[in-house]
Amino acid sequence: MNIEFATELDYEYIVDRDHHILENLIMTKIKEKEIYIIRNQQNMNIGWMRYGYFWDNTPFMNMIWLDEQYRGNGLGGKVVLFWENHMKQKGSKLVMTSTLANEEAQHFYRTLGYKDAGCLLLENEPLEIILIKPI
């Protein structure tokens, strides 16, 4: 597996698959190096990870995605640790993410050392769990 910053060449791949971001923001996130592309040994795209900043100063992982056949074998954890190390190098001492209470991802993050820090309840949505991790 190879993790690298997304480039303009990855734009179509991301637009086709990431439906949780406004399309007109994707190129900005690519230019700001806030999207990683995950590639397999054959250099084929198999996923991405996108982040931003909570309160404009705390790294917040917005989305991590691996194609179905690449899940469950530790690759997601490697991507998260790669991101955490990058954020630590940039001077951050804390990272954040969130997940819906009805998703299995909460258990994934907890095994990586993330702790529950609160929640958000939006109308007609499951509870959103906020998770933090000192780095």
From TrEMBL:
Under the heading SUPFAM superfamilies, the entry gives: Acyl-CoA N-acyltransferases (Nat)
A Pfam family cross-referenced in the UniProt record is Acetyltransf_1
- Single GO term (MF): acyltransferase activity, transferring groups other than amino-acyl groups
Listed InterPro entries: Acyl_CoA_acyltransferase (IPR016181), GNAT_dom (IPR000182), N-acetyltransferase_domain (IPR052829)
- Entry annotated with the keyword Amino-acid biosynthesis: no
Give the signal peptide as a residue range, or say none if absent.
none
Q: Does the UniProt entry include the keyword Endoplasmic reticulum?
A: no
Keywords for this entry? Transferase
State the name under which the record lists this protein.
Answer: N-acetyltransferase
